[in-house]
Design a protein that fits this description.
The chain is mainly alpha-helical. It has a domain of about 110 residues: IL-4 antagonist (De novo design) like domain (Four Helix Bundle (Hemerythrin (Met), subunit A), Up-down Bundle), CATH 1.20.120.660. Helices cover about 75% and strands about 5% of the residues. The chain contains 4 helices and 2 strands. A hairpin with a 2-residue loop joins strand 1 and strand 2. Helix 1 packs antiparallel against helix 2, helix 1 packs antiparallel against helix 4 and helix 3 runs antiparallel to helix 4. The longest helix has about 55 residues. It is elongated, with a radius of gyration of 28 Å.
Length: about 160
C-alpha cells in the first residue's frame, strides 16, 4: 500500500515529496526562463518598433516642412504660417530624436537614424532662417530636406508610400 509520502512509481522508484518538489521547481524554473526569454525578445522588438515609429514621425515632419517651403517659395503661404510650421516640425523632430536616444543600447541603425534626425534639424533651422530673412530661394533647402528624409528612410527601413 502506498503512503502519502511515496506514491506513483516511475521505473520502480517511488517519488518522495522532495523528488516531487524538485520536479515542480524544475518546471517552474523552465517556465521562468521561457518567460524571461520571451520578454527579452519583446523588449528588443519594441525598441525596434519605437525607433521605427519615431523615424516615421521625423520623416513626416521633414516632408511637411518641405511642402511648406515649396508653397512659400511659390508665394502660396504666408510667412508667419511657414515660420510656425517649421518651428513646430523642428520641435517634433527634436522630441522624436530624444525618444530614439532614450532607447537602451542603441544599435548602429538607431545611431544612424539619430544622425539623420540631426541633419534634418540643421536643415529645418536653416529653412527657418531663410523664411525669417525673406529669402525665397528655398529650392536647395527643400532638396536637402528631401535628401535627408530619403537617407532617414533608407537607414530606418521606413518605406515611402
Amino acid at each position: 500500500m502506498l503512503t502519502a509520502a511515496a506514491f506513483c512509481c516511475e521505473g520502480n522508484q517511488a517519488l518522495t515529496r522532495t523528488n516531487m518538489d524538485r520536479r515542480k521547481f524544475s518546471k517552474i524554473h523552465t517556465w521562468v526562463l521561457y518567460l524571461v526569454a520571451a520578454l527579452a525578445g519583446c523588449s528588443s522588438s519594441s525598441d525596434a518598433d519605437q525607433i521605427s515609429a519615431q523615424a516615421r514621425i521625423i520623416a513626416s515632419c521633414s516632408n511637411s516642412a518641405r511642402m511648406a517651403l515649396v508653397e512659400w517659395d511659390l508665394m502660396q503661404l504666408p510667412d508667419a504660417y511657414v515660420q510656425r510650421t517649421l518651428q513646430s516640425m523642428e520641435r517634433n523632430v527634436e522630441v522624436a530624436a530624444s525618444k530614439i536616444e532614450a532607447v537602451r543600447g542603441l544599435d548602429a541603425k538607431a545611431r544612424e537614424v539619430t544622425r539623420s534626425a540631426s541633419d534634418i534639424l540643421d536643415i529645418l533651422r536653416q529653412a527657418r532662417n531663410q523664411v525669417a530673412q525673406g529669402d525665397r530661394d528655398t529650392n536647395q533647402t527643400a532638396t536637402q530636406l528631401k535628401a535627408a528624409s530619403d537617407r532617414l528612410n533608407l537607414t530606418s527601413g521606413v518605406r515611402r508610400t
